[in-house]
Amino acid sequence: MEPTALTLAGSTDAALESFLNEEIRHLIAPPPESANSFTALLGLPRTRAIELLHSPETPNSPGVAVSGNPTRPYFNCLGDGGGGFAFAADSELVVPAARYSVFAGEKNDSLETSSQKVKNEPLTESDSNHNSSSQPLVSDPTVENKGQRPPKRKDREKKGKASAKKSKNESSEVAEELPYVHVRARRGQATDSHSLAERARREKINARMKLLQELVPGCSKVALLGTWCIDKPQQHSEGSEISGTATVLDEIINHVQSLQRQVELLSMRLAAVNPRVDFNMDSIFAAENVSLVESNFPSMVMPLMWPDVQVNGSRQQYHQQWQFNSLPPPVWGREQDNHNYVTPENSLLSYDSPANSGFPICRTKSFFISPLQRLCTQEPPKMEL
Amino acid sequence: MKNPQRSPTNPGSVRSRFTQVFLQSLLRIRKHSPASSSSSSSLGEFLKRCHRVKVAAYVSMARAAGTRRAWSRAMLWRVRHDAHRHRLLQGRCSRSSSRERSPGKKKRRTKKKKKRRDDQEHGFGNAEKLQKLVPGGEAMDFSCLLDETAHYIKCLVTQVKVMRSIADFYSL
Questions:
Q1: Where along the chain is composition biased (Basic residues) (chain A) (predicted)?
Q2: Is the ipTM of this complex over 0.85?
Q3: Which of B39, B54, B171 sits opposite A330 (nearest CB)?
Q4: CB–CB of B168 and A344 under 8 A?
């Protein structure tokens, strides 16, 4: 089995490279977001997914799975690859996969493991036998680490070995028919369809709760991860160590309420602002764009694809206004704000750091200048939506 | 005015769209408000303007988020029907009309717990609170609710940042 695996790896290397490159491009083009990745994956075409699902089972057509339509198929494996990927006993297979570890976060493991899985399943049947004992142990934590669930109905989780080895598997197997999603039970788990469906649903919910935890500040992940056990339903026995009995949901609710209250306060402030001489749209837009850019700068993931825009001329003209604005300290006598957010003073003073104008906000600056200038001349504003 | 490179759910494009729409609506509110400066306006006028600014903020955020999201659709629907109901109340001055129109599609007032009883596994007693907070939350199952909440929180954070920067710009 080994030599065939190696030769096949060599031949499919180029194909793998090309299709992974396309995947990288495809992922970069809509910039990935942690909270939206699984919703983006929801739109994957089912036919491609099923094709890919069937293709690894036939040992004759491994190349099809890899070099076939390269845009989507590996998304399917994101669902099943995370669970029980066959271990690459061959180092040659590991290396090209490791080369493409450009994605931060969870996509990393899924990509590599899925690419491995696509090639491994038809090849290493004997290897899968060999590794059968180790796989369920490894598949458990990877399943828990995943945050992406492609299909809509159930989760596509292959936690067992290669599908060809049904006889050796202790886990059950759902019939592989369209449009049902293939869920494979783990070793020693209940295998009726109800519990499978429920487990799939629970894992979906757990994945989203984790994302929410990341969004909500003040949710310590270490303390609260224990409350989201995947398999067994359990009460909030551990709870949160931050605030007594508050759970993750409570934190989320509090956060949403506080944000809504802040919106109300800010709207009061805006309503009370004295109508100055001119609603200088240019400077507002530029100032808040800069401040928002600065505050979001560490969270920007993929500035690569955004074209650089020459805004140096306009930037200098705004710079003087910012310097003027940063001198008098703000009077916030009306309400108390949280001081968690980057204040415009900090952002303005730190503006001299080279914020690469690859951000599309700068692009919209120049794009919007003409309608904003029209607004400044007191023409009736048009709603451009 | 969408940045063609970005998906509508990306906070960068949401933010730029939101700022633009919100600033335009602020201008319009300023024009429609009484010509006297804010210091001389009565408290009632001030509160009305506050409310209008708040509604404008939410509407512009919902528009910037796009109609792909259930919460943005629900919010726009709610604002439109609140305005509609308000106008009806003013026009007819009758209580019955408001009761007719209150249920609507999204069933804000009715407490329909569709499968809440099934979701006791993780202690989902707070799901109802979350449903009330997130617009359109009552019509969703729990996983969709979590998804919408995540996006809603992101957009709220963006909105707060933009509004704060505008307010700071003018209070200086």
A1: 149-166
A2: no
A3: B171
A4: yes
